[in-house]
Every structure is written in C-alpha cells, then in structure tokens.
Amino acid sequence: MSVFQATASAPVNIACIKYWGKRDTKLILPTNSSLSVTLDQDHLRSTTTSRADPSFKKDTLWLNGKDDPIKEGGRLATCINELKRLRKVLVEDKDASAPKLSTYAVHIASYNNFPTAAGLASSASGFAALVSSLAKLYELPSTPSELSLIARQGSGSACRSLFGGYVAWEMGTKADGSDSYAVEVAPQSHWPEMHAVICVVNDAKKGTSSTSGMQRTVETSALLQHRIKHVVPKRMADISAAIQARDFDAFAQITMADSNQFHAVALDTEPPIFYMNDVSKAIIALIVEYNRVALEKTGHLKAAYTYDAGPNAVIYTLQENAKEIVELIHKYFPQKEAFNDRFQLFGGEGVKGKVVEGFNE
Ligand code: DP6
Predict the structure, then answer these.
(1) 56-70, 113-127, 141-155: which range is least confident on average?
(2) Which of 175-184, 190-199, 293-302 has the lowest mean pLDDT?
(3) Angstrom distances, CA of residue 26 to CA of 33, 73, 170, 211
(4) Closest residue by CA, ligand 1 atom 5
(5) Span from the CA of 119 to the centroid of ligand 1 (angstroms)
(6) Which has the minimum average pLDDT: 18-22, 56-60, 272-276, 309-313?
(7) How far, in Å, from the CA of 89 to the mean position of ligand 1?
(8) Distance between CA 327 and CA 286 in Å, rounded?
(9) What pLDDT, on the 0 to 100 scale, is given for residue 351?
(10) Is the dihedral of CA 111, 112, 115, 121 positive or negative?
C-alpha cells in the first residue's frame, strides 16, 4: 500500500515594516502592507510532516508533540480545507488516476525548535511549514505567492515565510483577499552580508497576543490611522529601494523608525499594550549609542533594532559587525547561562543570524 506523506520546513521572518491591524479578521486582510527578512538558521524554524490515509478518522495536529485541537471554522481548519479543495480542483479533477487524497483525513505533526509565542513569530513559520507540507503531500502546482494566500489565513505574517530573503506582503484592495499575498523583493543572495542577531530577552509566552492586540489597536488608536495612510506606503517604497541598492543606512533608519512606531501604536491602544520591557529598552539605548559612535567615525550606521509583539530584540547588521555586536550585548547584558552551541553563525539560504539567550531581567 502506498504511503502518502510529506515533510516541509519554513523559517521565521522578522518584519522591518510591521503588519499590525486587520481590515477583515476572517480572511486576515491587513490594514497596511508589510516587509520582512526571512531568517534561515537551524535554530529558528518549524518543520511539519503531513500524512493522508483512508484509515484516519479526523484531521489531527500535534504541535511540539502535544495534541492541538483543530477547531471547526478556525484558522487551521480553513488552511487544511483550502488545500484539500485545491488538491481536488487542481489534481484529482484533472487526472482520474490521482489518489483521492482530498477525501482522506490528515495527520499533521509540527515542531518548532524555539519558544512558541514568545514574540519570535512561531505562528509565521508554523503556518508556512504546514501549508508547504500539505502542498507537497497533495502535489499542488501552486507558486509560493499562491500558497501565501492560504498561509495568510492561518496567520497574517506566515504568508511572508513562504519566501526566503526580503519579502513584501502586499495588502491588496479586493474584498475577497485574492490580491493580498507575499512577493519576493530580493533573494537572500542579493544582499548576503545581512545578518540578524536575536536576543532572547524572555521566552515566556507573551501577555497580549498579536491577534487580540492588533484588533484593539484598530478599534481604539488614532495614531494607527495616521500610520496606515501617511507613513507605511512611503516606507514600503523607501525600504524596497534601500534593499535594491544595498543601502544599510536607509534600511536601518526605516527599520528602527517602524519598530518605534509599531510600539507607539501599541501604547496608543486603549487599554495600552506594552511589549518591550526594561531590558528591551536598554538594548535600544545601547544600539543608539553604538550607531552614534559609528556615524561619527565612519559616516554610517552599523545596526538596526526591531521588536515584534514581545520583548526580544532582533538586531539587523552587516556581517562585518555581527561579532562586535554580539560581544557588546554580552558585555552589557551578562548572560544567565553559559554560552552554548547556539552561538554560531548560521548558514543556509536565508539571512544568517546568531541567537543570544538568557538575559538577566
Ligand atoms: C508584530 O501574524 O502573529 O509580528 O495574523 O493575527 O496571526 P495574526 O497576527 P501575526 O502578527 C504579527 C505581528 C508582528 C508584525 C509582523 O510580523 O509584521
């Protein structure tokens, strides 16, 4: 008997222009376009295996070894059903000899090799890996942009993890969401010197989830309206141009400004949301000072911090400065634990990075 099984993996992406706000919560259509860098390192990815079998009773997901119920009508069910529909329409209806996998239940096992829901975008790599593994299992002829339309309905930021390198999520204008998908801005090879230093300030599950936090912001923040109309469109164009030109100064300025504004709209939410803690803020102060000295000496910036919905810092920098930044972080933020094997520079197709863990808070 044939075994129908496929495994795929997807890395985390960290946004430089943040997605924060939905105009349609069911289809997950954003209030603004966003842009991210996909990290590719062994330590920050989700790997998912999917298996279809006529003997399976119902679709089941195990997340990091634990049964994770699939809620009817929920995001997971939406993604699985949409992929089954595509299997039927694009494969089975066209080839009568193709196994009717769309009628079988699936068992899905997904594993994150980093803390789940700690502001490290686990839902992004998770849904991207899930969609990729089912697309592989079903032998769908779909492009990454087409698959991003489905991953988007699992978690908005997941649509960007279907690509490596520099990725934009175009917000689109259509009510059905058919033009709200991810596109590649540039491959990793276009600017391979880009590195990310990830500082795990706290790996506990965060207090306010992105989903509920951003909805509250949409409902209550006047600053968000200004941001989506008057700030993000120009930033999207400017940062795309900076990436094309490999202009780190412009890339860093825009990335830090957008992180700051995202946290400002979180604070402008009623009741206010605080994602950064004192360590996060101290890392900002350190990077600001580091850049001030660099600017004075060389006329250029050396680092760009950015924070998602949690206290962990991601510092983008060029390869030549990565070691210095890690040393600086270690010097000013003594580590709880001894360094471990995570302190290597990571290779692969995406942007290389380092993980620095265990800050004293
Ligand atoms: C701050 O994609 O996790 O990381 O679509 O509700 O699942 P849902 O939200 P999610 O939000 C990510 C928010 C962010 C910014 C970003 O990644 O662009």
Answers:
(1) 113-127
(2) 190-199
(3) 17, 10, 18, 11
(4) 156
(5) 9
(6) 309-313
(7) 30
(8) 12
(9) 47
(10) negative
Q: How far is the CA of 1 from the centre of ligand 1 (A)?
A: 42
Ligand 1 center from residue 155 Cα (angstroms): 7
Q: Across-strand partners of 307?
A: 313
99-130 pLDDT, tens digit per residue, is: 999 999 999 999 988 765 445 657 899 999 99
**Alpha-carbon gap, residue 280 to 348, rounded angstroms:** 28
Mutation test residue for ligand 1: of 210, 263, 307, 312, the one with most atoms within 8 Å of CB: 210
Q: Which residue, by CA, sits nearest to atom 11 of ligand 1?
A: 210
Per residue in 79-93, pLDDT (tens digit) is 999 999 999 999 999
Give distance in angstroms: CA of 156 to centre of ligand 1.
6
Token pair 């089954």 in the structure block, residue: 84
Q: Which atom of ligand 1 is nearest to the CA of 169?
A: 18
Residue nearest to atom 1 of ligand 1 (CA): 308
Q: Where are the beta strands (DSSP E) in the chain?
A: 4-11, 13-17, 22-24, 29-30, 34-38, 45-53, 60-63, 66-67, 105-112, 166-169, 182-186, 194-200, 303-307, 313-318, 352-357
Quick one: which atom of ligand 1 is closest to the CA of 13? 17
Pocket of ligand 1, beta carbon within 6 A: 15, 18-20, 28, 34, 121, 123, 155-157, 210-211, 308-309
Q: What is the pLDDT of residues 251-261, one digit of tens each?
A: 999 999 999 99
Please state the length of the chain: 361
CA 340 – CA 338 distance, rounded (Å): 6
- 0.95 exceeded by the pTM? no
Q: What is the ipTM of this complex?
A: 0.99
Q: Which amino acid is at 227?
A: R
**Structure confidence at residue 179 as a pLDDT band (50, 70, 90):** very high
Q: Where are the beta strands (DSSP E) in 139-280?
A: 166-169, 182-186, 194-200
